């Protein structure tokens, strides 16, 4: 047994040394020249010294010995001149020529072998021998924000590694990442080429020792992309298995494939549906202007985000007391060891020993208890109950596979007597609209029309709607050469809506779905407008869950119409207007209304970037003066 363990250890060291050598050789010609120079020096210098010291007439002083060694090194590659009989000279020259031919052939063989090895390395076929690294399986435009966010999340870690396996050229992947993510903040990205549905190929990136694995859907038709994701999950689970604290995060494009993907992912997997996540965020944002900005801030590692922390000093204390226990962190819930996620539990709920506290904070080490709670201005606290929900009129422009889910989600929120008017082109949209189920509180009306045409928009009385939802068309069935660029029709429609805003003399409440984040800068609409870029949102969400798998349940709760969600409510419902108060006063007022305050939005800053008036997780000792149009961001149950 001991001999077997020693042999295993020796083999592991040999694999590690070869892995290090492979990574060095993959750097190209400079590394090759360096290795050749090193090998020459390691051979020529000892042999030259041995020749000097083996010579009977060797010099006696060290200085002369070093000079003789130097001469031998200098003459190593010269043929020299043989003196003697013609036969001796001829044989010497013949031997020299044979030696030269042999050396040339040997160099050629070695060079060819090294070139083949370098080409093999550049094709990304060698094993990744890392531990507690992050693995990304698959390739799409989502990879760039994923890598960027992982680098940001790991910026306080030494030797962070992200290994990517995809059916793409290794060099091309590396070049694209360097171009799109220039600042990796010390994170090393390793790319490998291969089929993610092949179990043997998946092992190249060593997923069983990874801290987390992210499976992305390819940029192609939903059916094909989701099939590849499911096969990748099956290939991943056919291997040795994940480490005890490892987990998998995957995404499917079509919600109809969600169940199959969950089965393939297993118990350690978390699978997201682009359709469901996007639809929920669109509906919530349509009813809560500015919400997309809040979610972008929460999901982005460059700002404040969700963390789970243990705090022994709060054990046995009521949850309501924890809300003011941190100066620079916002408490929003608990992770119960037996009951899972509990957002905004009752204020008198006792924090148990094995509970984790859910906080919004800058980093995992910034949730520090305050020496004493911040001051609360009791005289500034007001309580204004929310007005009863009124029926809503919503206009939905465009159609894609998420439209039915958007309407279903909307029906879970709106009051009785609400109406949604859908305008879209195409017989398929009309046919699908006919198949929509009836809702008791929401009337769905469908009208065929080209939403990018001004005469169609002008006939809709847009000013009468409480909100406008603009969905992008999907053109997956069209030939690639005739397929329009993503978001072109959306941008044209926004142009017309902007012109109609000028005629109405007021800003329309518009939430826009886009497929490419780079097109958002081209959108002819106010700076702080709500945009839902499905690919980016999913990338941010997957990265958050990859860093903390418990957040999957938290985000699922936030998207549940029957649970607690994020709202932007009038600031005058919490504190007296135009009165300077500490933010702790706002938190206390929200607590008394059974809500968790996590920030605020100032109306006068809403058109100014980069935050557009959003102040997420401000210090409770800071002061603020609210006016008309300002909002408090709360976690509440509607």
From TrEMBL:
Molecular function terms in GO for this entry? monoatomic cation transmembrane transporter activity
Q: Which PROSITE patterns does this UniProt record tie to the protein?
A: RCK_C (PS51202)
Output the Pfam families linked to this UniProt entry. Castor_Poll_mid
Name the InterPro entries on file. Answer: CASTOR/POLLUX/SYM8-like, CASTOR/POLLUX/SYM8_dom, NAD(P)-bd_dom_sf, RCK_C, RCK_C_sf
List locations, semicolon-separated: Endomembrane system
Nucleotide-binding listed as a keyword: no
Chief location bin = membrane
Q: Which Gene3D superfamilies does this one have? A: NAD(P)-binding Rossmann-like Domain
Which residue spans traverse the membrane? 32-54, 87-112
Membrane topology field: Multi-pass membrane protein
- A single BP term in Gene Ontology: potassium ion transport
Give a Gene Ontology cellular component term annotated to this protein. endomembrane system
Q: Which UniProt keywords apply?
A: Ion channel, Ion transport, Lipoprotein, Membrane, Transmembrane, Transmembrane helix, Transport
Q: Which residues form the RCK C-terminal domain?
A: 291-375
Alphabetized PANTHER family for the sequence? ION CHANNEL POLLUX-RELATED
This protein is called NAD-binding lipoprotein
| UniProt organism field | Streptomyces coryli
